């Protein structure tokens, strides 16, 4: 039972991340409860990333590094996002239109756009492993492959106020989380089978 519950928690964390981060922010409400919910959702991306990357690492086999790259990129995303909380929170303490409020608001917006750079690396690494090993449905890997360059381009425009590529990343995360949750009982065996097939096909 323990072996089933723990994987499902890691897999389902991705769905909760999307619901709490996007669902609550789309309401436009700045109440403390909404902010706390968004922070919890952000933290839930960590176990989801850890679970996903553990499966990718098993599928890759020893000596490969893409799963580790994805894990590192996911953690960098969290670090930048958490770092943007300080200027975003401080901006609310000043009146709209003041120079200080505008400066802090720009810092917060720039950090949001910059998070797409490590996420592009995350998506590229995940896409490569999925397409190569089929540890998850290949179409999910191709969707990640499409999302990666879009995140990269979007992340280059630091003055942008909207990140459409981030919405595609959230969609991918939601789909991957749902699939992983449904298949949490046998994804581990699939990853081991994928690793075995990859080892057999190598010279």
Comma- or semicolon-separated keywords:
203 residues; mainly alpha; 9 helices; 0% strand
Description:
With 203 residues, the chain is an all-alpha fold. It has one domain (2-192). It has helices at 2-25, 32-60, 66-83, 85-91, 99-114, 116-133, 138-156, 164-182, 187-201. The protein is globular and about 55 Å long. The model has no long low-confidence stretch (mean pLDDT 86).
Tally of extended strands?
0
Poorly predicted sequence stretches spanning 5 or more consecutive residues: none
> Into which percentage range does the β-strand content fall?
under 5%
Summarize the amount of helix as a percent range.
Answer: over 70%
What's the Cα radius of gyration? 18 Å
Major sheet characteristics: none
Short synopsis of the structure:
This protein has 203 residues and is an all-alpha fold.
How are the SSEs ordered, and which strands pair?
Blueprint: H1 2-25, H2 32-60, H3 66-83, H4 85-91, H5 99-114, H6 116-133, H7 138-156, H8 164-182, H9 187-201
